[in-house]
Known about the structure:
Chain A has helices at 24-34, 62-67, 96-118, 146-155, 188-192, 194-200, 220-223, 258-262, 277-300, 310-327, and strands spanning 6-12, 15-21, 47-53, 69-72, 75-80, 85-90, 122-125, 127-131, 134-139, 159-162, 165-171, 174-178, 184-187, 205-208, 215-218, 231-242, 250-252, 303-308. With 329 residues, chain A is an alpha+beta fold. In chain B, strands 2-3-4 form a three-stranded antiparallel β-sheet, covered by helices on one side. Chain B has a two-stranded antiparallel sheet with strand order 1-5. In chain B, strand 3 and strand 4 (37-40) form a beta hairpin. The A-B interface holds A 254-258, 261-262, 264-265, 267, 283-288, 291, 295, 298 and B 20, 22, 24-25, 27, 29, 31, 33, 35-38, 40.
Amino acid sequence: MTEYFFDMLFEIHGIHVRLVSDSHKIGDSVSRELGDFAARNKAIPSITINVCRHTNGKSILPELVQNAEEISPGIFTFTDFTKMKSTILLKRGHSFDEAVLVTLSMVGYISRFLLAKKKQLTGIHSASLAYGSKGVLLAGNSGSGKTTMSLLLIKKGFKYLSDEETFIEKKGSKLTLLSFPRHIRIGNGFADSPQGKDIIAGRTLTRHNAFYQDGFIINPDDISPGCRIKSAKLTACIVLSESEKYRKLTIKKKRDTAHLYKLLSLAETLSTGTEKDSVQKIIRKNNRKAYDIINFMFDTTPVFHIQYSLKKNSAELSDVIKEFLDYCK
Amino acid sequence: MTENKTDILDKIPVQAPHILSRIENGKAVIFDDTNGEPCLLNETGSLIWSLCNGKLSVRAVISELTCLYEGNSSQMETEIVDFISLLSYKGIITLS
């Protein structure tokens, strides 16, 4: 019988995820990171994520090790969607910070799948924030400044919903942006820039060197305490383009919407080598829903395109967006 | 894409029923409902797509575009045929 040192049940928009660990130290690390939004309750978990050390052979089945995917050097994951069980394996000597990152990432990955499957919610590659009761979706290609803009806006009093992916719920004619409980990731480039240094000065940062980029993760609550909210009515959508070549901040009222459709392909993030046909079906269904929601958003929500240079225009960005939201009804 | 140019000219291109589309700023966003894949067409491609309405032959589509755009008509014809062949190969349109 496995003795769990760590057993936590938390909820994301009605999805319950049970996180268990057979390592005391991993449990402590994960607990620290997830403690802000985790809460024990008596609900039945939709999925169980087991975090364990690679060397603890007793709790790991051989076929699991064989089928696991190495998502970062020394870190393996395997998710069986038919049994709703996921396991994260860590090789001996791996830093616990990295374990926390992998765990959070898997929680995000699995939650996305469950939100699509069980709640029929649609994720779109975007950041989202709110000013007062008005929610704004920040879309754009990778590197367009969604994360940077989010940090700047949080510092100026905006509330935080999500950084990388936003779930949009459609009820009747109302679109609601839903939070996603993940910290913000920034690259070394931004951390070293004057704007980055200004934002992160004196904040608690965790070094992030797993996955695709080096950098840091920041808890938005460290920038503006209490800035996380659960949902906001979608009031406007802003498509971002960042480049040093832009001398002046420009808001194009002519909608540049082609970007948003490209973002549908983000639903591929639900895809892994271990998936079955049933998972593929959900991905396709999710894409179709995203397409329908984006179409509906274009018909009902103001969509604008902002061209800016982080170096030249960052000081005025939040005021411009506030004015813009005041204008939107 | 095995059909040659002369085979295709008298065929009538029709948008496939499983393809959803929407024109945004003159550009067509097409979505394949069978595989969940979105695809964006540029302005010229979008115009060709909108002319694949089941009423015009490929030859007539070429004629429409050569009236609208200036350029080497022979090269335009080749490019339009190639594009329509590609759409057909991908199952986005059917040729009847």
